[in-house]
Design brief:
Number of helices: 3
Oligomer: single chain
Number of strands: 0
Distance between the termini: 58 Å
Structural class: mainly alpha
Strand content: under 5%
Order of helices and strands: HHH
Low-confidence stretches: none
Largest sheet: none
Radius of gyration: 32 Å
Mean pLDDT: 82
Shape: rod-shaped
């Protein structure tokens, strides 16, 4: 139970105690007063929630309407780079050992190609890929 709940419980106990002391003729006024406090508490919670959601939406807009993807994490990209470099060693050895320089070049072309494809998937505009067109670009200015 947090401090706000304890405060609300204290308010309820005070309202019930006042009802016992004042009698039933003041019951509706006491209940209305308590419900107004509960309503204010709910309004405050909703307002905080709305402000938080608005701030999150503004962050998305500030990032260029590109929400972070769960697969677009730094750790995943770093791990992919490490695995790529680790696999480059045996691929270089096999390609260079079998076909000498042309085999080495083919192995490294494949490694670079896989990494370029991965980078383009994460950031499509990196290699001049498709960009989302703004809907307002096609409209006539009035």
């Amino acid at each position: 139970m947090d401090a706000r709940d304890a405060e609300l419980k204290k308010e309820l106990n005070a309202t019930l105690q006042a009802r016992r002391e004042l009698g039933e003729e003041y019951e509706s006024a006491l209940v209305d007063s308590f419900l107004e406090k509960v309503d204010q508490r709910i309004d405050g919670a909703v307002e905080r929630r709305v402000r938080r959601q608005m701030a999150e939406q503004q962050m998305v807009v500030a990032r260029g309407a590109r929400a972070p993807k769960p697969t677009d994490s730094w750790g995943e990209r770093f791990g992919f780079g490490i695995v790529s470099l680790v696999l480059a060693i045996p691929l270089s050895a096999i390609g260079g050992g079998i076909a000498h320089l042309p085999g080495l070049l083919v192995a490294w072309a494949g490694i670079v190609g896989v990494n370029a494809f991965s980078a383009a998937r994460v950031n499509p505009s990196l290699f001049g890929g498709r960009r989302k067109r703004d809907k307002d670009e096609d409209r006539w200015e009035e």
